[in-house]
């Protein structure tokens, strides 16, 4: 079944206007009650090569369309049904493109990690952040893409699907920065987050492809994977070249200028002992811009070559915001990567 098509039926049924039923009087009350929903859909496509699309600027909405009722994320997570239509406001905290190298970039699924006040204020047992899967069939406007690239944003998710513990954006899901027409917000808490965002801490329930907060004690350092690279202090370009005129200077092709004060970025992999996951090996890839203590360690490793690993073992680290790459039981290991929230 095509989830998007049957979600479309759900948005149109029962009809808001009388339905013509063959053999019945138009005055019959049976027109809009006790009618089974359609069991099929027609898929309309454009012939190859015909890419021109007419847009109705008046934004007239069919009177058959049932406007979405907006709910808080906490309420949506409690829905028992499968592939239920849902609409909500949420603060986008982090976005990540799934890395399946066999799939073209424009066909990959993207994960948006979102939260709202109903989750941030929830008691134990309710996640503080949920992942929204954006399929390749869900078209994001350039406004949304550019806004999310610039930072965290309150976004309206219209006609997403909830089922099997996931929120999915399909072909008919729309992401907006403004409140859409005919949208009922009754009972929904749309207030923006005022305080700092809290993530769930790493524990025995943490799953792969999620984000969490992490604290622990350094028990090991992977020296073989430590490296650094200079980036442009203006645009962040990490592929600098030697300046043709002066081989002692770096040159940025994106800015077409000499980089006199490059920003050094570093990466290091450490092993932590975490009380919340005491039976697991916790491996974290960290960067210096976030972890000041580990930045000092990595600087010594790369440039001084004089430190001893023993001097950093036992150091406390946290809270770090991390993306969970994998969780395995044999061996019992959690692989994470430190991230910067939008």
From TrEMBL:
Every DUF4503 domain range: 1-341
Any one Pfam family match given in the protein's UniProt record, by short name: DUF4503
Organism superkingdom: Eukaryota
BP terms from Gene Ontology: double-strand break repair via homologous recombination; regulation of establishment of protein localization to chromosome
InterPro entries, per the entry: DNA_repair-scaffolding, DUF4503, NA-bd_OB-fold
Any Gene Ontology CC annotation: nuclear chromosome
UniProt xrefs under PANTHER family: DNA REPAIR-SCAFFOLDING PROTEIN, DNA REPAIR-SCAFFOLDING PROTEIN SPIDR
Protein name, entry field: SPIDR protein
Phylogenetic classification of the source organism: Eukaryota, Metazoa, Chordata, Craniata, Vertebrata
């Amino acid at each position: 079944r095509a989830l998007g098509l049957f979600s479309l039926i759900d948005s149109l049924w029962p009809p808001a206007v009388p339905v013509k039923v063959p053999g019945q009087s138009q005055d019959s009350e049976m027109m809009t009650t006790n009618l089974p929903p359609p069991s099929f859909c027609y898929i309309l496509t454009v012939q190859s090569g015909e890419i021109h699309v007419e847009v109705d600027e008046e934004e007239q909405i069919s009177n058959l369309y049932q406007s979405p009722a907006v709910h808080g994320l906490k309420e949506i997570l409690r829905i028992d049904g499968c592939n239920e239509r849902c609409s909500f406001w949420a603060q986008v905290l982090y976005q990540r493109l799934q890395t399946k190298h066999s799939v073209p970039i424009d066909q990959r699924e993207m994960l948006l990690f979102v939260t709202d006040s109903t989750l941030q204020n929830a008691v134990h047992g309710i996640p503080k952040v949920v992942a929204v899967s954006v399929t390749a069939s869900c078209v994001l406007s350039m406004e949304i893409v550019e806004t999310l690239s610039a930072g965290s944003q309150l976004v309206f998710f219209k006609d997403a699907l909830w089922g099997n513990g996931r929120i999915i954006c399909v072909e008919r899901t729309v992401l907006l920065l403004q409140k859409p027409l005919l949208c009922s917000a009754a009972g929904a808490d749309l207030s923006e987050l005022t305080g700092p965002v809290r993530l769930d801490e790493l524990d025995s329930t943490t799953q792969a492809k999620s984000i969490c907060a992490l604290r622990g004690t350094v028990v090991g350092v992977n020296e073989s994977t430590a490296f650094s690279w200079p980036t442009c202090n203006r645009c962040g370009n990490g592929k600098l070249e030697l300046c043709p005129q002066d081989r002692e200077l770096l040159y940025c092709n994106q800015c077409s200028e000499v980089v006199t004060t490059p920003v050094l970025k570093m990466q290091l992999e450490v092993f932590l002992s975490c009380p919340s996951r005491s039976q697991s090996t916790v491996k974290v890839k960290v960067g210096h811009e976030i972890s000041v203590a580990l930045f000092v360690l990595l600087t010594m490793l790369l440039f001084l070559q004089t430190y001893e690993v023993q001097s950093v073992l036992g150091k406390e680290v946290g809270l770090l915001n991390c993306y969970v790459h994998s969780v395995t039981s044999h061996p019992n290991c959690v692989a994470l990567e430190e991230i910067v929230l939008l």
